[in-house]
Amino acid sequence: MSIVTDLRGLLKEEPLDLARAALTIARLEYPHLGFAQSLETLDRLGERAAARLNPGSGAPLRARVAALNRLIFDEERFAGNRAHYEDFRNSCLNVVLERRLGIPITLALVYIEVARRAGLTVRGVGSPGHFLMRVPGEHEGGRDLIPDPLDRGAEIDVQDCRALLAKHLGMLNEDVPMDPALLRPCAPRHMLARMLNNLKRTYVEMRSFPQARTVSDLLLVVDPSLLSEVRDRGLLAYHLDDFPAALRDLESYLRLSPKVDDQGKQEFKQLWDHVKTLRRRVAGLN
Predict the structure, then answer these.
(1) For 80, phi and psi rounded to 5 degrees?
(2) What is the mean pLDDT of residues 104-131?
(3) Strands 132-134, 147-148: parallel, antiparallel or unpaired by DSSP?
């Protein structure tokens, strides 16, 4: 079966198996990848974490998170690949588990999966600066913890989040409005979409258009409402000289697009020019 078919099947299951979904995405680069070794690694780490966290012990939440941090970041030496952040392998869970190197979202995925196996709930936070995590408070009204996977699980506060966002936007801290919604937990599908967007950006920069096109297919499986992906998939098909597919997607995008502003009108005109060219080329193929 294709990667697209496999991911569609996983998305029908509740709860979504994030690890298997991420490993399915990794088949973009490793077509014959088996999941057993990676899942066994997560299970082994989960067993060790459960022994440290001892869910029934009544240890404070912060102490359990600190114990998990020690295991993952100190003993197992998981770390952010700051030197080669754009390396596609940072988005492939199997390689992240082998090399102990990743980007915030894949480090967070490892952390979330290990924590789940140890009885601790950790959720992803799709903040704009870089991906974070959120550990729900122990009781109603209890304060959630926000660990940073790129900083060895260090707990951060709102001001730290503001600084991360300011750095991401190239602004001064005091000029960045901090919306609490930016720190809300995200759904597993959002995590997958963000992982795929990271890969797509890398593939486009590498001019690896076939892989980028498949990523657009996967993004539309994760979220069929992503109209921009229909456009991007059409443009990628155009680059690959698949003119019928490019025409189909670009016509769909223009037909379904809402009313646009002046900037959008310029894009609309450019895409319409592409469509007219494609219609002539497709007619010449018949």
Answers:
(1) -80, 140
(2) 95
(3) unpaired
For 4-47, write each residue's pLDDT tens digit.
999 999 999 999 999 999 999 999 999 999 999 999 999 999 99
| Per-residue pLDDT reduced to its tens digit, 138-167 | 765 678 999 999 999 999 887 888 788 777
Give the chain as a 3 state SS string. Answer: CCHHHHHHHHHCCCCCCHHHHHHHHHCCCCCCCCCHHHHHHHHHHHHHHHHHHCHHHCCCHHHHHHHHHHHHHHHCCCEECCCCCCCHHHHCHHHHHHHCEECHHHHHHHHHHHHHHCCCCCEEECCCCCCEEEECCCCCCCCCECEEHHHCCEECCHHHHHHHHHHHHCCCHHHCCCCHHHHCCCCHHHHHHHHHHHHHHHHHHHCCHHHHHHHHHHHHHHCCCCHHHHHHHHHHHHHCCCHHHHHHHHHHHHHHCCCCCHHHHHHHHHHHHHHHHHHHHHHHHC
CA torsion sign for 223, 112, 13, 43 is positive
Q: Alpha carbon of 161 to those of 28, 99, 170, 173, 174: distances in Å?
A: 33, 28, 14, 10, 12
Handedness of CA 175, 180, 183, 187 (dihedral sign): negative
Q: Which domains does the chain have, with CATH numbers?
A: 3-183 (3.10.620), 225-285 (no CATH)
The string of pLDDT tens digits covering residues 248-267 is 999 999 999 876 666 678 88
Statement: the pTM of the whole predicted model exceeds 0.90: yes
The amino acid sitting at 10 is L
Q: Give the Cα-Cα-Cα angle 230, 233, 238 (nearest 5 degrees).
A: 125
Distance of CA 13 to the CA centre of its chain: 19
Q: Are 215 and 200 in contact (CB under 8 A)?
A: yes
Q: Which tokens is 18 given?
A: 């994030």
